[in-house]
Amino acid sequence: MLTTVACLVQPGFAPFEFGLACEAFGLDRTDDGIRNFDFRIVTPDPGAVPSNLSFSINVDADLSFADEADLVIVTPIPREAWTNVDPRVLDVIRRAVDRGAWVLTVCSGSFAVAASGVLSGRRATTHWRYAETMASMYPDIEVDPNVLYVQSDRIITSAGTAAGLDACLHLLRLELGAEAANTIARRMVVPPQRDGGQAQFIASPLPVSTSLSLTPVTEWMLENLRLDLSVDQLAGKAHMSPRTFARRFKADYGTTPAAWLARQRILHAQRLLEQTDLGLDAIAYECGFGSAAVLRQNFSRVLGTTPTAYRSRFACAPELAGSPGMAS
Questions:
Q1: In whole angstroms, how far apart are CA 146 and each of 50, 125, 163, 261?
Q2: How far apart are the C-alpha atoms of 317 and 314, rounded to whole Å?
Q3: Strand 123-124 relative to strand 142-143, pairing
Q4: How far apart are CA 95 and CA 8, in angstroms?
Q5: For residue 33, is it left (φ>0), alpha (ψ between -120 and 50) or beta?
Q6: 123: CB partners within 8 A, 6+ apart
Q7: H/E run at residue 96
Q8: Residue 38 carries which DSSP code?
Q9: How much is the pTM?
Q10: Which residues are 150's β-sheet partners?
Q11: I need a labelling partner for 132 at 20 to 30 A (CA). Which of 77, 177, 246, 317 fits?
């Protein structure tokens, strides 16, 4: 169980990306029934750590806590540090991976993890502006510039700025369950369902005319997950040709209608497994998977576990009631 979190900051850190890590893992949410994490900010040399915006924060803790944390978050580092990462930071990252802890990067923090060597032979991402540089510096890493985040075993790399929050919510969903992650997302007033495979850059995030918005269609999809929803049927709902609908959906949501729908079905299955005692056949029907076998197949492919194991861990989320306390 994820209980201890070390947020690693270095000189030149980015305040927004640092703040979102603090927001995701550092706040007291026991009034929402979600246990606290033992969250601490660490740095190689305790004291005043300058940001990239001409102010500093005072960090009391050195890197020792990171060697026992269940999660090490690596916040962005400035460009001049990409080729000169502090060796102490590299060692912390290597040891975290060796002992099976989670490592999560935000934006250019992926360069520090790449420099440690633990991404060799893996798929990873970073901000789309830096992806080509990262691929050139580390040809042994499969750098994907087109996604919000990538999970490779227990290493999660994410793209720029808000994509780091998507990565944090992804990890919270894995560790606390879908409903707890949704509760945290609601508190932060952000969408809880952005999948890692969604495009980093969406050309038209808001339709020019509200009459062209696909929101009514996606809301109808969510209300009718049990149905066999084809692109032709959805296009008809949107009063578009199938080709135009598919193109518009990708432009607005950064993914295909089928991929978006599949993710919503998995999320609904997670909620039903957590909050109801429905059998797997009934859940499969409600989510549009058709049979328990198809549910198991999709669940395992996306989440790496079985529906039964997921329910055993997260049903009614009884473990969220406990709180080990929060340190800073």
A1: 31, 8, 12, 19
A2: 5
A3: parallel
A4: 14
A5: left
A6: 141, 142, 143, 144, 150, 152
A7: helix 87-98
A8: E
A9: 0.77
A10: 157
A11: 246
How far, CA to CA in Å, does 99 sit from each of 20, 111, 126?
26, 21, 24
Determine the residue type at 276.
Answer: T
Separation of alpha carbons 28 and 37, rounded Å: 8
| Adjacent-strand bridge partners of 148 | none
Q: Which residue carries 């102010």 as its tokens?
A: 55
d(CA 23, CA 18): 9
The C-alpha atoms of residue 187 and residue 169 are separated, in whole angstroms, by: 12
303: exposed, middle or buried (Cβ count in 10 Å: 0-12, 13-18, 19+):
middle
Say which DSSP state 206 is in: S
Strands, DSSP E only, in the chain? 4-8, 38-42, 47-50, 56-59, 71-74, 102-105, 123-124, 142-143, 149-152, 155-158
150: tokens are 């990538």
For 2-26, the pLDDT digits (tens) are: 999 999 999 999 999 999 999 999 9
Rg of the Cα atoms in the chain: 21
pLDDT digits (tens, 9 = 90+) for 245-273: 999 998 888 889 999 999 899 999 999 99
- Other CB atoms closer than 10 Å to residue 208's CB: what's the count? 8
CA distance linking residue 283 with residue 208, whole number of Å? 38
Q: What is the mean pLDDT of residues 48-72?
A: 97
Q: Which amino acid is at 204?
A: S
The torsion of the CA quartet 12, 14, 15, 20, rounded to 10 degrees, works out to -140
Q: What are phi and psi of 104, to 5 degrees?
A: -125, 130
Burial class of residue 121 in the structure, from the number of CB atoms within 10 Å of its CB (0-12 exposed, 13-18 middle, 19+ buried): exposed
Residues paired with 152 in a beta bridge: 155
Closest CA to 38 of 75, 65, 3, 2: 3
For residues 70 and 2, the answer to whether their CB atoms sit within 8 Å is yes
Structural contact between residues 192 and 159, judged by C-beta atoms closer than 8 angstroms: no
